[in-house]
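Q: What would this chain look like folded?
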Amino acid sequence: MTIDVAGVLLAGGQSRRMGGGDKCLRPLGGEPILTHVIRRAEPQVSTLVLSANGDPARFRDFGLPVVADAILDDGGGSAGPLAGILSGLRWAAASAPACRWLASFPTDAPFMPRDLVARMAAALEAEGAEMACAASAGRANPVVGLWPVGLADDLERAMVADGMRKIDIWTARYKLTQVEFSAEPLDPFFNTNRPEDLEEAERLL
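A: My prediction, written as structure tokens:
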């Protein structure tokens, strides 16, 4: 366990490619996808919160606190993963003050590395970086990251004043380290965006 890192599970997406609803609640190997994600994320952090909009009661069985996005788009919909990261930063500052860092985990990636946080934290220290994100197969996975809790105000200003919504545009303002994870024998950030992805995840499982 990394004692100074909180974690946020990002479940605020609208799942259009999966046909709507909460894709993280769809079954994989007889359990919700979210259960697989929690099983991998929870041992890596000292505390965990779920970022999701709408009625939090649908996540009651997971026993985690649930926070909604503090910032929504003009139409009242999700402002994207940055909004979930911001909510996680705010929650960590208030509920886990010993945690100086927040790790973000997508809830549609059931095969994430079990050493994800440790490797990102080591890269931060080794490179003197301000934040970290994961990569695999030569592609960045900016939603999988390690963020300083102290940057919550800066992120909120960027989202409100600058209308910022893309993670990589925000991270371009800071010294970012990108941590590469092997995609063999499978890409650890394989995500279940579409019904056919879920079928492939069943096969991989």
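Confidence is low (pLDDT under 50) at residues 15-19.
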